[in-house]
Structures are given as C-alpha cells and as structure tokens.
Amino acid sequence: MRRGFFGLLRKRDSGSAGGKYQGARPNMTVFVFVFLFIISFLMLLLSSRAFMYDVKSVGLSLFSGVRNGIHELTSFISRTVLSISELSNLRKEHADLLKQLDRFEELERSNAEIYQENIRLREQLDFARTLRYRRIPAQISGKDPDNLFSAVVINKGSVAGVSNDMAVVAWQNGVQALVGKVIQTGAFESLVMPVYDINSLVSSRFSVSRFEGIVEGQGSSETPLLMRFVPRRAREEIYIGDIVVTSGMGGIYPAEINIGRVSAVNILEYETTLEVEINHIIDFSKLEYVFVIEAESISSSDTGNYDD
C-alpha cells in the first residue's frame, strides 16, 4: 500500500512538472521569434541603399549645420576682434589728427601774428626813413608801478643813446604823433611821461591858423587834452577837427609833430584866452613801438648810426 501510494504521488508530481515545462516552451519560442524578426528587419533595412542614402543625407546635413555654425562663430569672433583693433586704431588716429589740427591752428595763429607784426614793423621802418631827426627805435615794455596810469617804460636806455628830455613819437594808422618825453634814463630802459600826464606841458600851435598855446594833460589817455592860453580872437579861425602840432619852442619837442585834433572850443567869461579840447591821435592802448628823437636836426650820414 505504501509503495503504491508513494509511487502514485511521484507519478503525479512528474506529470505536473512536465506540464509546467511544456507550457513555458511556447512563450520562449515566441520571444525568440520576435527577436529574430526584429534583427532580420533591421539587417534588411540597413542593407538597403535608400536607408544608406538617408543616413548619409542626415549625417551630411548635421555636419554641414555644425560646420556652418562653427564658421559663423569663428567669423563673428574674428570680426569682433578686428573691430576692436580697428576701433583702437581709429581712436589713435583721431588723437593724432587732433594733435595735428592743434599744431596747424597754432601755426596759423603764429603766421597771422607774424604777418601783422611785419605790417607794423614795415610801417615803423617807413616812418623812420622819413624822420629828419636822430631816432632811436624802442618798444614799450611796461608801465611805471609807481605811476601805473601815466608813465610807460621803453626797452632802450643810455647804452642806446637815450637821455632825459628827449621827445618820443610814434607812427600809428599812417599818422605821426607825439607820445611824450623821456623823464628818467637807465642803462637799458627809460621812463617816458606821455602827453596826457597831468604834469605834461607842450608848446603847440594850430597847423592852419598858427595860433599858439600850451597843451597839458588831464591824467588819462581816455580824457581829452586841454590847450590853454589861446588868444580869444582865434575863435573865428578854429574849427572842429583842426590839427594841433608842436611849435618847436622850448628845445625839447621838434616842431610840426602832431598832437591831436580839436574836439571842442570853450569860451571862458572874463578871460582873454580860449580853452580848447583836443582828442588824441595816438591810441595809447594799442601803442607798441616808439621812436626817441632829438629836437636838433642832423645830417643823414649821422642818422644811420642810430638805426636798429
């Protein structure tokens, strides 16, 4: 009974195991079949020319896109670097051009100044040639600090032949006129008292009517000169604009040097003389060059010894 029972049990167990094994085999077969089918399809697909052409096309497109991207990137970087370099060069060139422009403007100003200086010096030279007196050309170099609004300093002194009480004249706008006289002389500079100084007195006369008087200053170049002690009877022969010149009396100022023009005639009550206002011919604010002269006339051969 025991053998029959255990023998029957083994038979059932073996039958049930065999059944499980037989049921799993169809599932494995299907899986292998599907796998082989996919492999065969892929091999067939890869072996076709159309697929290879598509793959090549896709690869070529991708490669071309990458290449174009790299080219654009490198071109952009190159252009940027070149632009920065060109900008730096342009800035340098701009700075150089500005410096050159400044130099040209400075040269232009210098040329204009030299041109004007030549004109002024030519006028002074032409005037010096017409003087009948010994002349010493000089340039105004400053003003007396003790008398800022009157006395002026010239750059010639006793070494050049300048001495006290020598007359000083100038040539301005084509007209010769009196500036003043030397009142103090140094070795290389001299002090000049202009005609508008309050202490200046010049013997003078009218160039047309020839009536005489004394011209005195009022302390400023902006204020008219006053001609005093003019005979009352001269009123009918004096006109606005008449020129007043030096008379040559006194031995300091040579005769016939222009002083100014009549601007007004004042008739003083209970006086036997007239008071005449005279405008300056010389614009002292623009005065640069002067000539120191002596009253006595000398020969032309001696004149050349004093030309600078």
Describe this entry's structure for a reader.
The protein is an alpha+beta fold and 308 residues long. It folds into two domains: 2-47; 131-306, Beta Barrel (Thrombin, subunit H), CATH 2.40.10.340. 43% of the residues lie in helices and 28% in strands. The chain is built from three helices and twelve strands. The protein has helices at residues 2-47, 49-130, 300-303, and strands at 133-143, 152-154, 167-172, 175-185, 190-194, 201-206, 212-216, 225-231, 243-246, 258-267, 273-280, 289-297. The strands form two sheets. A six-stranded antiparallel β-barrel has the order 1-2-5-4-3-12. Strands 6-7-8-11-10-9 form a six-stranded antiparallel β-barrel. β6 and β7 form a beta hairpin. The longest helix has 82 residues, at 49-130. The model is unreliable at 14-21 and 297-308 (pLDDT under 50).
